[in-house]
Amino acid sequence: MKNIIKWIIEIPLLLIAIVLAFLFIVPWESRQITIAAEKGVQDQVEKPVLNIDSPKEIAYAEEIAYLFGWRRRIIKSKPLIETPPDIARWLKPMGFVVGKGNIKEYMFKDSRSGKVISVALYGRSRGWKLLEISAERFLFEYEGKKYSIIRNK
């Protein structure tokens, strides 16, 4: 029984090794693929001509590294001066509620739509993301733009 299993495994491996050796030993011709053109045009498209230049005498390290996926590091310029956030006067803070896991969810009334936005710190609600809470203001992000909401005193 063990010999049968051994032969079942060894015979395919031996055949694969023979085929691979044959493929490496036998020289293969490079074949040109011809494309049949439409009626009324040439029967065959001309074979492409390979333009093989003599190799460069000097290969720079960057050229070689580029072949292996290396990319030149982009030098970061000085950070842009951030514009101050716009004040969202149409959002009025209403307070907060302690939710699951003792997480505070802050409520804001949107006077434009009449809807209430309930959002936790770094959470997102109706497109609004609460970024920062300080004693003076709430800092929000909406569609890539920053807004500030002044806290009630």
Layout of helices and strands, plus pairs?
Layout (H helix, E strand, L loop, with lengths): L1 H24 L35 H7 L18 E2 L3 E8 L5 E7 L5 E5 L3 E2 L2 E6 L3 E6 L2 E6 L3
Parallel strand pairs: 1-8
Antiparallel strand pairs: 2-3, 3-4, 5-6, 6-7, 7-8
Summarize this, please?
By secondary structure, the protein is an alpha+beta fold.
Structural class: alpha+beta
Give the second-level CATH assignment, the architecture of the domain at 86-150. Roll
User: Overall 3D geometry?
Assistant: elongated
Low-confidence parts, pLDDT < 50 over ≥5 residues? none
Total strands: the figure is 8
Beta percentage is 25-35%
Q: Which fold name is given in CATH as the topology of the domain at 86-150?
A: SH3 type barrels
Helices and strands, in order, run as: HHEEEEEEEE
- Tell me the number of helical segments per DSSP (H or I, 4 or more residues long): 2
CATH class of the domain at 86-150: Mainly Beta
Helix content: 10-25%
Taking the sheet with the most strands, its summary is: 5 strands, mixed
Strand order of the largest sheet: 1-8-7-6-5
Distance between the termini: 87 Å
* Cα-atom radius of gyration: 35 Å
Q: Quote the average pLDDT.
A: 79
Q: Would you mind describing this structure in some detail?
A:
The protein is α+β, with helices and mostly antiparallel strands and 153 residues long. The protein has a domain at 86-150: SH3 type barrels (Roll). Helices cover 20% and strands 27% of the residues. The chain has two helices and eight strands, in the order H-H-E-E-E-E-E-E-E-E. It has helices at 2-25, 61-67, and strands at 86-87, 91-98, 104-110, 116-120, 124-125, 128-133, 137-142, 145-150. A five-stranded mixed β-sheet has the order 1-8-7-6-5, with no helix packed on it. A hairpin with a 2-residue loop joins strand 5 (124-125) and strand 6.
